[in-house]
Amino acid sequence: MLIDEAIGLMTTTGARVTKVDLADFPLPLYDGDLEADQGLPENAKILKSHMIAHDGLLIAAPEYNGAITAVLKNAIDWVSRPQPDEPSLVAYRGKTAALLAASPGVIGGLRGLTIMRMILTNLGMVVIPEQQTIPRANGAFDASGRLKESADRDAVRIVTDRLVQVTTQLFNSKSEP
């Protein structure tokens, strides 16, 4: 629900948005031996191609036991794997990212965002400082999946607007001499 709210806000800026739900791209647990034996799974290749095609990444994720989900970490690991004839970390390095989280707890997924920020920074991404958590998420959305509180919507808009702004500035400056 949170990602749909954010996508709706981003599309008003003219940003090109592709929604990716990791549930649509099942992957085996990352294992170097499995990779050496079978190569990159097809779903990892598809995810990687989506990420390569975009300059920025918006992640909206829940927090499980004070960390990011295993599904998200596994996808990050598979997509990070180098392939012949491509630059190292091509899906991540130099791209922008913004972080959102929703959780039934009182801090709304903040611990997971802290870990996610470290991972993405380590992969060479520019993670914008603006982020937003939605605490008590089980009651934060209405029946149509929209955030109930205008303050929450406004806070998400700040994050999405800033992601679009930084991404545009960063990639426009790369094309200039």
From TrEMBL:
SUPFAM superfamilies: Flavoproteins (SSF52218). GO terms for molecular function: FMN binding; oxidoreductase activity. Transmembrane segments: none annotated. Residues 2-136 form the NADPH-dependent FMN reductase-like domain. One of its GO terms (cellular component) is cytosol. Gene3D superfamilies: 3.40.50.360. InterPro entries: Flavoprotein-like_sf (IPR029039), FMN_Rdtase-like_dom (IPR005025), NAD(P)H-dep_reductase (IPR050712). This is NADPH:quinone oxidoreductase. It comes from hydrothermal vent metagenome.
